[in-house]
Amino acid sequence: xxxxxxxxxxxxxxxxxxxxxxxxxxxxxxxxxxxxxxxxxxxxxxxxxxxxxxxxxxxxxxxxxxxxxxxxxxxxxxxxxxxxxxxxxxxxxxxxxxxxxxxxxxxxxxxxxxxxxxxxxxxxxxxxxxxxxxxxxxxxxxxxxxxxxxxxxxxxxxxxxxxxxxxxxxxxxxxxxxxxxxxxxxxxxxxxxxxxxxxxxxxxxxxxxxxxxxxxxxxxxxxxxxxxxxxxxxxxxxxxxxxxxxxxxxxxxxxxxxxxxxxxxxxxxxxxxxxxxxxxxxxxxxxxxxxxxxxxxxxxxxxxxxxxxxxxxxxxxxxxxxxxxxxxxxxxxxxxxxxxxxxxxxxxxxxxxxxxxxxxxxxxxxxxxxxxxxxxxxxxxxxxxxxxxxxxxxxxxxxxxxxxxxxxxxxxxxxxxxxxxxxxxxxxxxxxxxxxxxxxxxxxxxxxxxxxxxxxxxxxxxxxxxxxxxxx
Amino acid sequence: xxxxxxxxxxxxxxxxxxxxxxxxxxxxxxxxxxxxxxxxxxxxxxxxxxxxxxxxxxxxxxxxxxxxxxxxxxxxxxxxxxxxxxxxxxxxxxxxxxxxxxxxxxxxxxxxx
Lengths: 472, 113
Hints:
The structure holds two protein chains of two kinds.
Chain A (H helix, E strand, L loop, with lengths): L11 H20 L6 H20 L7 H21 L5 H29 L6 H28 L13 H21 L6 H19 L7 H23 L2 H24 L4 H6 L20 E2 L2 H9 L3 E6 L1 H5 L3 H13 L3 E6 L9 H8 L7 E3 H4 L8 E5 L8 H4 L18 E6 L19 E5 L2 H14 L1
Parallel strand pairs in A: 1-7, 2-3, 2-5, 3-4, 5-6, 6-7
Helix pairs in contact in A: 1-2, 1-9, 4-5, 4-7, 4-8, 5-6, 5-7, 5-8, 6-7, 8-9, 11-17, 13-17
Chain B lengths: L2 H19 L7 H11 L4 H9 L4 H33 L24
């Protein structure tokens, strides 16, 4: 189209192969939405990617093979090692990290396109420059935002919301500065200043940090999903700049599908995406059952008591949360379930849509422990059965069981759908302490008369309960 | 390709993305997010083109890093998705629960969700 058109082959053969590639992506995503075909879908998409990469490598005029091989080699090595070594519990931060490097790649490509055009002394047309600017800004925001999300999930920085006073003002000023620079670059599009463009990347980087830092850990899944969609869009923008149809289609697909996924996740938490991005669960809750300092009465039990309660129940529902993931307790919980099933107890698992730190996080973990698929029950499905449940065991879940969401209109989580464990005959909560969850609010469940607290590490407690049941 | 052709493709792709994704069981949200995450690694092609046609030192460096980043995104993304989905496709109860405790993963930090 413009700057690179003389250099870049956009021939029919290359385009045809790109069409094959993005068709495979569409089929791959489509199959990824059904349990039986998901694995094949992923492979199909990966084949599509291979087609796209090979096509690009075959473009006429490509050079600098040493560097290309170097980049591919380093990337492959890191990608393979990281994905083999990662624990299933660390999946959310892994996705955040992969998303971040994708965004980083977009930003770097945008920068390099600007340099390339300037060094060739070519005029940029707006149809090239605007996508480059968009790709640079969004890529940079996504890279830094994802890195912060990764650091929070990996506990490298506190998961609590971190906000400076006047944060909203600073963000607004940054945003205005970014828009202004974009306009200046666009007005001067025939000879854009590289310095300004780099300043733009830096400001976008700061904005990416500042937007994600004040968001609490509980909202991270939504943020990662949103950044995923952003990276997709920025890749599409890079496609506009490079006149590359594969980038346009694949990036856009990710952008639109990621947007839907993000909205689904936000809906599950009964919050809007804007609300998550611009308020967070905020500072310490004032009022709404905060009860700082005063010790509220609760019942504390040991593993043996818990084992007896469970063993003599008819039906048990396990409610897993992020605590199960950090304690790696999925196998131990499965052992408890096995022991119970030997005694004829029905065991089900109640999966809240946002339990853990990603939708489906709990499903992945429990599947890893060989929990049968049909025992994993979704929230709407299991809630009506709660009153007929003898014992509900809450393992490291907190906010998603807090009755305040239903009962207290002033609660920060008011209106969020919860797993109604307090409807069960008895509740056992396995947790290390009474400390609040990500939302930073007290859980009324812990103080209800039919709730017993078992203070322990989830994995150790579950192992102990399993052996106690075996001894009964 | 003209700008309008590209915008046509873009808009159609937006709708394809919306259509293709609807009605996903919660179970598959994480793997699907991971798979689409891998797909946007396609931007690595941009890195290849940058390096392939680069003509100054800094462009070599920027482009090579972009290729490495994009490749991590692609390779890691597809492999991690495959690992996740592998766990679902494993036959339930086909194995005894011998892997009761996995090494190297101590519990830390209180349970909260």
